[in-house]
Amino acid sequence: MKSSCILVDKNEILVEYASTARRQEPGDKYEINVTYSGSVDYMLSKRQLTLYPETFIFLNPGTPYTRTIDATLPVNSLSLRFDPEFCQDFERVLRMKQHQLLDDPEGGTSLPKTFADGIYPLQGDLRYTLTHLRKHISAGNLHPLLLGEYLNHCLLNCYGMYDTEIRDRADALGFLADSTRDEILRRLSIAKDYIISNYNKDICLEDIAHAACLSVNHFMRTFKQAYRQSPHQFLTSVRLKQAKFLLKNTDYPVNEIVDIVGFECASSFIRLFRNSFKVTPGQYR
Amino acid sequence: MMQNVDLLIQARKDDAVQDDIILSTDDCIRDYYRLKQQGMLDLKEPAYIESGVFLEFKDPSGNRFVLIEKRDYKEL
Q1: Residue among B33, B46, B75 minimizing CB distance to A146
Q2: Which pLDDT belongs to residue B6?
Q3: Across the interface, do A123 and B53 touch by the CB < 8 Å criterion?
Q4: What's the pLDDT at A114?
Q5: Which candidate, A35, A87, A24, A91, places its Cα nearest to that of A60?
Q6: Do strands A65-82 and A55-59 pair parallel, antiparallel, or not at all (unpaired)?
Q7: What is the DSSP string of A89-105?
Q8: Using 50, 70 and 90 to split pLDDT, how confident is the model at A108?
Q9: Is B48 on the interface with A (CB under 8 A)?
Q10: Which residues are bridge partners to A8 per DSSP?
Q11: Which of B33, B73, B75 comes nearest A145 by C-beta?
């Protein structure tokens, strides 16, 4: 096991390479957690989240949690931990800039944009910023000012994702009263995290709806509104995404990948893959 | 100073600003840090656009440089 913690101002960057690890964390910071191979389990009070490649887990301060790695191959993970005071300052500066930039002063007051604890897709600018940051860390470029720039941009990129990940989904449920809408969205996001965390298992609608404290019908209807796809389509897209990652980053045979990501048979997997990405798994690899 | 930057200089064809020199880079944030360390004049923070992220600065003779890191946001 190899683990190092780099301090940047009041923030921390934790780089870990381990096949087994179990740690109680105070959970007193804002966190962005990613893994580049293998999975990491997070146990937050009664909720279990599993972190896979191509996704990130965002955590707010205030919930102690347990982080567990238990794998045959070492897991390559990266955690950014932001001091709450640092984030407040960051937000204040951002708000000021928005005020200066926008003719509409109301636009600047739409902050704070709070993410719920949960799993989000690792894509767009955040993906790029983290890739660059990781490159500098492995090359030993650890100047605090350099790393600080990347940390700033990671936060900025998170804010950038707010519209697609939160606001648009809330708007899609727009007919409800604000408080109802936020509560439904919160429960749907628990359901979404449940699906991602258990994507390779045989899960059924009842389990997901139960995890989210919604009735099956209510869950189906509202999920489709907010995520613009049915829960089953969402699960399939998570499986295909992970299959894509495994095709590119491992040399497991296709049959084994089909098994790992939870598809029942290779032929339906190949058909789905081809329909979604216009290439066969073999060609993609 | 910018040994890692691809020096791809292209004059802007449209008539907007004739004097801009556009360079492409693979990591705009790193370049921002380096230029800042060197006390570059009129250095603007990296900003996001549809095709990626860019920054602007002026050299001592007043030439305006734009550094662009193109990013592919389509799913890989």
Answers
A1: B33
A2: 46
A3: no
A4: 73
A5: A87
A6: unpaired
A7: HHHHHHHHHHHHH-S-H
A8: very low
A9: yes
A10: A11
A11: B33
Question: Any bridge partners for residue B54, and if so which?
Answer: B47, B68
pLDDT of A285 > 90? The answer is no
For residue A9, give the 3-state DSSP assignment.
coil
Residue A197, amino acid:
S
Residue A90 reports pLDDT greater than 90: no
The tokens for A250 are 């491992």
- Domain-by-domain residue ranges, chain A? 1-172, 183-284
CB atoms within 10 A of CB A30: 21
Q: What is the C-alpha to C-alpha distance for residues A36 and A245, in angstroms, rounded to an integer?
A: 10
Q: Which residue of B has its CA nearest to A244?
A: B76
DSSP secondary structure string for all residues of A179-193: HHHHHHHHHHHHHHH
Structural domains present in chain B: 21-70 (3.10.180.10)
CATH topology of domain A1-172: Jelly Rolls (2.60.120)
Amino acid at B2: M
Please list the residues that pair with B22 across neighbouring strands: B10, B66
Name beta bridge partners: A65. Answer: A25, A44
CB count, 10 Å around CB of B56? Answer: 15
DSSP string, A128-162: HHHHHHHHHHHTT---HHHHHHHHHHHHHHHHHHH
DSSP code for B10:
B
Number of A to B CB contacts under 8 A, please give it: 27
Binary contact (B46, A136; C-beta < 8 A): no
pLDDT digits (tens, 9 = 90+) for A14-71: 999 999 999 999 999 999 999 999 999 999 988 899 999 999 999 999 889 999 999 8
Best of A128, A142, A244 to disrupt the B interface by mutation (most B CBs within 10 Å)? Answer: A128
Using CB atoms, pick whichever of B27, B36, B75 lies closest to residue A132. Answer: B27
Question: With respect to CATH, is domain A183-284 assigned 1.10.10.920?
Answer: no
CA atoms within 13 A on the CB side of B61: 5
Q: Tokens at residue A273, please? A: 């893959």
* A149 closest CB neighbour out of B32, B48, B75: B32
Q: Note whether A125 contacts B71, CB cutoff 8 Å.
A: yes
Both structure tokens of A81 = 């931990």
